[in-house]
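Provenance and format

Records in this collection were gathered into a single text stream. Each protein contributes a sequence line and a C-alpha cell line. The two records reproduced below are adjacent in the stream.
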Amino acid sequence: MYAIDSTVDTALEALHYQHLLDEGFNPDEISELEMYGAESITHNQALIKGIKKWDETRHIHLTDGGLYFPFHPEYGQIRLNKPVQVDGKTFKYLGPAKPPKEWKPKPKIYARTEGWKDAAMPTVRGIATGAIVGVDNIIYCTKKGDEIPIIFDSDGWKKPQVVRALVIGAIWTNGKINLFPEMPEYPTGGACEFFKSGYSISDYQDLIDSAMNPIEFIQAWISRWDDFDDLLKSECARVAAKAVRVIQAGNRYLDCLDDKVADKKNEWINRSNQ
C-alpha cells in the first residue's frame, strides 16, 4: 500500500486521498481520478448538488461532506465522512434525488460494474469500464440493447435478488454477466479488491471474455447450490424459476421493462420536486 507524501499535488482532503490509497490506487492513478472529477466537497456543496436521502416520507439532509464521484453532469454520488441513518439502515454513499446515470469514462466502454471506484480501477489500468449505482438500477441508467457485459461483486452468487437483478439487466442490455471470483480477504469484493488481491488487468479481461448469457449464468449459479443451506436453496430455486420464465417471455418482458422504466423516471421527477 502507498502512504501519503506530504509533497503530493492534490486538491483532495487527506482522509479522502488516504481512502483512495487504501483502495489500491497509486498516486498517478489518483491524479487521473481527479481529472475525471473526483473531489472533496463540503456539506453545503453536497446540498447544492441535491444530495439527500429519501426515507419514504421526507428527505434526510446530510450533516457533513465527503468524497464526491461524478457519474454525469446531472448525477454524482458522495462517500460521506459521516454516514446517515435512515430506518435503522446506515448509508455510506448517497446521490441526489434524481434518476441515476451511468458513468462512462470513455466514449466506448467494454464492461460495467457497480460503483464509481470499482469502475475507475480497471479504467485507469487500461480497460474502460462504466459504473452503475446499485444492481437494481441497471435498467434505469443503461442503454437498452447495448450488449455491454456486467461484472459484479463476488458475493452475488449467495444473493438471489442480486442474481435476479443481474439477469434482468442482461435481458435489458442483451448482454452477458459475470462475477468477480471469491477473494478470501474480501468476501464482498469488487474490482478494487480484485486488483488488491493480486489479479491483473489481463485477468479482468478474462472475466469480460468469459461472461455468460442469462441462461448460462443461471446454470452456473445452480451448480453452486450444494454448499447453500436449505433456506437459501429454496429462495434460489424460486428466483431461478421466475428468471427462466422472464427469459422465455422474450420481447413481452422487454415491453414490461420499458413501462417500468418510464414509471420509475416519473416517480423520481415527482420526488425531486417535493
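Adjacent record:
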Amino acid sequence: MKRVSIFYAVIAGLTVLDSFLLSKPNLLGKIGLIIYKYHYLRTFPRTLMTVSIVVIISLSIAELTKILVKNQTVKRATGKIILSFLILLSAAALIKTGMDFSGWTYNHTGHRFKYGAYLLPFILISIFTFALISLPKLPGIAPVETINNEPSDADNKS
C-alpha cells in the first residue's frame, strides 16, 4: 500500500511540474498558442486542469483494467495485452512529440514548453507500466498431487 501511495504522490508531482512547464512557453510559443488556438494551455490553472484530466483518465483506465483482472472478468493475459497496447500508444505519442518538436514551428517554443510536452507521454508510460507490473495474479489451479505409491486396502486383502 505504501508503494502505491508513493507512486500516486510522484504522479501528482509530475502532473503539477508538467502543467507548470507547459504554461510557460517563450514569446514565440505564446504567439503560437494564440495562433493555433490552444486555449487550454494559456494559463497555469487551465494547463493544470488539462493535464490532470489526461492523467486521471489514464489512471482510471489502468485501475479499471486491474479491477477487471482481479474480479476475473478479464483474463490476466488480456489485461497484459491491454496495458501493453496503452504503453505502446503512449510511446508512439512520445515519438510523435519528438518529431513535432524537431520541426521548425514547435522547435522555437522554448525549452520549458518542450520539456513539458515530452513529460506528459512519459507520465502516461509510467502509469501504464506501473499498472502492468502490479497486475493482480489470478489464483491458479492447484498442482496435481503425486500418485501415492502406498498399497491400497484392496491390494492388502489378497
